[in-house]
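Reviewers of the previous submission asked for a worked example of the structure-prediction workflow described in the proposal, so we include one complete record here. The input consisted solely of the amino acid sequence. No template or homolog information was supplied to the procedure at any stage.
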Amino acid sequence: MPDTYSELRAQLATLTTEAYRPELAEIDRLSTLEIARTMNGEDQSVPAAVARQLPAIAAAIDATAERMARGGRLLYLGAGTAGRLGVLDASECPPTFNTEPSQVVGLIAGGPSAMVQAVEGAEDSKELAAADLDAAGVGPDDTVVGVSASGRTPYAIGAVEHSRAAGALTIGLSCNADSALAAAAEHGIEVVTGPELLTGSTRLKAGTAQKLVLNMISTITMIRLGKTYGNLMVDVRASNEKLQARSRRIVALATGAPDEQIEAALTAAEGEVKNAILILLADVDAATAARRLKDSGGHLRAALHATAP
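From that input alone, the workflow returned the following structure tokens.
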């Protein structure tokens, strides 16, 4: 066996996400219901593991929001499941928060084709991460989140190292303690989820934990940026019939206005939910609503306060 594989095998043996659980050695002999109950029990430990990292997560989010408020971007980089979760989170931001596709970006080792098919060797290259970030033009106002369950994936570590050298804010999200990824980043988040039901299958608890943390990073950052009003998605982009109906419901919940007034306000605001709410609550025309939202940096609550007598 080549020395490279001996070294890697020794590394993997130290990771809790790769640990073998002899008590589950005969899980394949259980009934389907028993296996499902076992998996469900395993999954219940994930939120507690995330909870232990909430101070670190909050600090990373505040730093991210500060950069994005001055025009920076949020970029996720990872390989395999970690990369796919980053791409998923990024792709959901435009319809949810009306962000431009360039504002929140997911990059996966091996490129878009790696979303559906493994690209051999891509995760092993720090240089590939550097090239992907150079192509994206990463800079000082950006935030780069390296995601890796093991915390040792060269692509994720390389992304953080290269971005930090470029002056970007860096976050390292892993599921093992004392990881190289967290050490390389300005903000290390280590959600230790422990051994998996299937040995080394980090698409399970580790993947769930990563999804929960990425949900927090994107959602709370957008709240800090004024993309919501209370718990309403007032920057939702009505790109289909369901979202058009949701837009009207959001305006109704925020204002209590009757349907005909809601339709008139949305028409005047060219479909922009936040503007329509301001038109109704502040009793202003569309141009005034747009100007006041611009003056408040897009924060509806601030715009409403500014228009109060």
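The longest strand covers residues 169-174. We consider this example representative of the routine output the project will generate in years two and three.
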